[in-house]
Amino acid sequence: MIMNKRIQHLPTRTYRRENGVALFAALMLLLIVTILGISSVRTGVMEAQMSTNEELRIAAFETAESTLDAVVSNPSNTQVIGAVGRKVCTSNWPTACDSNTVIIPPVLVGTVDNANQLMAKVIRLSPAIGPAPPGYSVIKYQSATFRAQARYNGTPTGQGNTEVLEGVIIAFPKPL
């Protein structure tokens, strides 16, 4: 007995109606992923630039602060005997001074590309002789006040630019 088997064929799909919809969807997905990747890279580059700028700003501030500390710690820059308003500066300070005798220590000058990037000024403030600052005996000490200013200009070499200004009180023994 021979059986008559019919082979049934599954219906074939017609791909003519799709007309490249899958290709279009894949291209759109690829475009979206590319845009996300590019924006992520740009964000990373921007954050790297921001952190570099922050490091340069901090380094410039620390250089100016170190310069100011070195200038103030030198007694010849903060003379307690002298006229009120007397200005002593480095030779490269942009405005006129009474004396260009402030010298920045070579250790600091060696940390910058050009010695003209560092400058400092110290001004004697009034009164000429004041009372002792807190923590000192008023009977045995008196004081002199100063305004000290230091600038670091590393802009030409891309190293930042900053200025530090602080008040200084020097306590010294009263003459006997």
Q: What does this 3D model show about the protein?
A:
The protein has two helices and five strands. The mean pLDDT is 84. With 176 residues, it is an alpha+beta fold. Strand 4 and strand 5 (161-173) form a beta hairpin. It starts with 20 loop residues before the first helix and ends with a strand. Strands 1, 2, 3, 4 and 5 form a five-stranded antiparallel β-sheet that branches. The chain has one domain (22-173).
Features of this protein?
176 residues; alpha+beta; 5-stranded antiparallel sheet; 2 helices
Low-confidence stretches: none
C-alpha-based Rg, rounded: 37 Å
Count of the separate structural domains: 1
Number of helices, counting only DSSP H or I runs of 4 residues or more: 2
Proportion of strand residues: 15-25%
Give the ordered list of helices and strands.
HEHEEEE
Helix/strand/pairing category: alpha+beta
- Say how many strands there are: 5
Main sheet overview: 5 strands, antiparallel
Overall pLDDT confidence: 84
CA distance, first residue to last residue: 142 Å
Shape: rod-shaped
Range of helix content: 25-40%
Topology diagram in text:
Elements: H1 21-72, E1 87-89, H2 106-109, E2 118-124, E3 130-131, E4 141-153, E5 161-173
Antiparallel strand pairs: 1-2, 2-4, 3-4, 4-5
Task: Summarize the entry for a quick read.
The protein has 176 residues and is an alpha+beta fold.
